Every structure is written in C-alpha cells, then in structure tokens.
C-alpha cells in the first residue's frame, strides 16, 4: 500500500491527473491549497474516465492506484460529497463487463466509501426521502459486483479484511443510489446479511449515531421478514446476525420486540445438518434478550433427548414468561412483543 502524508498531497495528485488527461484553468493550477476544490476535481476526473478513449487496462490502473493512495492517507480522510458518489455510481454502471471489471468496481467504491460518517448518512437518508417519486438509478452493477466478490473470495465465513472492505464499499454504493426500483436479488441479500453478521462489521452496529437511523427504518424487523420469506437461503445468516447484536445494549430492546420471528426462523432451520443448525445462536440470544436471569446450566439436571429438545424447552420457558407479563388491556406501546 502507498502512503501519503495528508489529504493535500492526494488532492495534488488528483489535480495532476486532471491536468494531464484533461484541462484545468491556470488559476486552479496556481492555487497552493486545493483542498477546497477536492470534490470538483474528483468529479472532473471521473467524467474524464468516462469520456476519454482510454483502454480498460489504463482505467483499471488509474482507479486502482488512486484507491490505494486514498487508503494510504495518514490521518483523517474527509468524506466525499454526494455529487462525487453519484458520479462514481454512473461511472460504475456504464463500465464494460470485461477483464478487470470487478477490480475496478471494488476500487472505485472503496475510494468513495465513507467511514460511518453520520452527517453523510443523514444527508443520504434525507435525499432518499426527497427522491421517493424520482427516477431510480441503475444499481444492477452493484448487485453483480457483490455476487462476483463472494465468488472470488470463496466461503464468506473465511473472508479477510480486504473482502469485508470490498463488500462494505459496494453496500454503501446502494445508499447513495437513491430509491431502489425493486428489492435486491436473493444472492445479494445473502452477501449483505453475511456482511452484517460478521464480527468485523460490529462497528456499524455498535455506532451510537448509526443505531437510531437503523432503528427508525426498522432494520431488524425487516430483516426478520426477509429471513422468514427465504428461510433456506437467509435463515442461517439472520440467526448469526441476531447472535452478533444481542449483546449490544441499544439493540436489545429492538430484538426483544420480535420474539415470534426469532422462534419462527429457528424452527425453519431445524431440518438443517447438525453442523449448520444454529442452536447455539438461538439459545445465546434467548438467554441474552428474554431470559438474562436464567442460569445457562439450569437445564442440565433434565435428561433431554438432544440439543434440539433443550433449545425448545428454553423457548417454551421464555414464551411462558412473556405470556405471563403480556398487557392484554394496555396500549400498543406496552406490548412486550409484536403480533406473529
């Protein structure tokens, strides 16, 4: 990886690319501090890559080198403007699907990705709401790149930091693409759930500024609905994600409200092989969320036929406890869990 002292040196590099492949005014070239022009210079460079008759190998090299330089900056990296993100999305959507294509997509989205910048997320959220009736962008390239990334790195459970960073950038690309015309393909949903359920992604779920946004959009209940719809393909990932967030204080009340879905998804996994059945995740979440006072070894005195029977005994105990506390005559806000 390359290492640059600060953002100023990186912007000088972008300025040089613009000057070499395009045109820049003498005033811009003479300006000593170009940080204030960073977004305009990046948009111009992206437009050059789309309009100049470069060969694919040249574009691959430019984008990859620029991405590596960006990642090598020492110190804070300010997020790009929404215009930069949108222009890069247009570039990716129109890039030919030939040798080097996936590498360019990963480098491009890594370059313009933001590192949990709350102001950017809030702006994107408002932008998405304002564009509810607007034209949806082409995001087919994002889904295809997600699926190709999974194929390139193999078993998702063994992804390294580079694979996680690649998928992070691609998922973020969906955020600044405005309203999606339709639901993502099933294979892409599997990759997204894998990304969220991995320990390396815990910082997204633990970020106190991002949590209210995810709660506002009912992320957990929506994921539960998807997992119920596609039990065979997504149920296992949903269980792993639940185990990941059940220890995070801000997520516990949200998960607590959706006990029926948690049990329904688990029941759909009972036909899986023993080595893939999520009994461990199921029991862990039940104890963390709905039965924190229960001794993990309290059921050891019973002679269960197998681990499945033990898991269902714990589920029945929790259901009985919740049923006993359910406020039948109270307002909806007092209910302890959602209707099934």
UniProtKB/TrEMBL annotation:
This is Uncharacterized protein. It comes from Mycena maculata.
């Amino acid at each position: 990886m390359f290492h640059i002292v600060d953002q100023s040196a990186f912007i000088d590099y972008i300025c040089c690319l613009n000057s070499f492949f395009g045109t820049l005014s003498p005033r811009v070239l003479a300006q000593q501090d170009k940080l204030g022009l960073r977004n305009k210079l990046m948009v111009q460079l992206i437009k050059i890559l789309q309009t100049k008759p470069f060969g694919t190998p040249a574009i691959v090299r430019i984008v990859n080198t620029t991405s590596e330089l960006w990642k090598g900056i020492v110190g804070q990296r300010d997020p790009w403007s929404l215009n930069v993100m949108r222009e890069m999305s247009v570039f990716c959507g129109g890039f030919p699907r030939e040798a080097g294509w996936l590498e360019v997509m990963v480098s491009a989205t890594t370059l313009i990705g933001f590192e949990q910048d709350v102001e950017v997320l809030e702006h994107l959220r408002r932008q998405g709401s304002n564009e509810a009736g607007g034209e949806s962008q082409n995001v087919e390239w994002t889904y295809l790149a997600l699926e190709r990334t999974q194929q390139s790195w193999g078993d998702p459970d063994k992804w390294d930091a580079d694979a996680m960073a690649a998928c992070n950038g691609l998922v973020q690309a969906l955020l600044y693409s405005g309203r999606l015309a339709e639901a993502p393909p099933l294979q892409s949903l599997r990759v997204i759930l894998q990304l969220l359920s991995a320990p390396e992604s815990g910082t997204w779920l633990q970020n106190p500024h991002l949590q209210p946004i995810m709660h506002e959009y009912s992320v957990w209940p929506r994921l539960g609905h998807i997992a119920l719809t596609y039990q065979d393909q997504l149920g296992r990932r949903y269980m792993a994600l639940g185990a990941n967030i059940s220890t995070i204080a801000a997520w516990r009340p949200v998960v607590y409200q959706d006990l029926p879905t948690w049990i329904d998804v688990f029941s759909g996994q009972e036909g899986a092989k023993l080595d893939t059945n999520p009994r461990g995740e199921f029991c862990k979440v039940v104890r963390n969320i709905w039965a924190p006072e229960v001794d993990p070894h309290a059921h050891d005195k019973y002679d269960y036929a197998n681990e499945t029977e033990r898991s269902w005994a714990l589920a029945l105990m929790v259901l009985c406890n919740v049923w006993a506390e359910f406020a039948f005559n109270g307002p909806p806000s007092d209910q302890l869990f959602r209707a099934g």
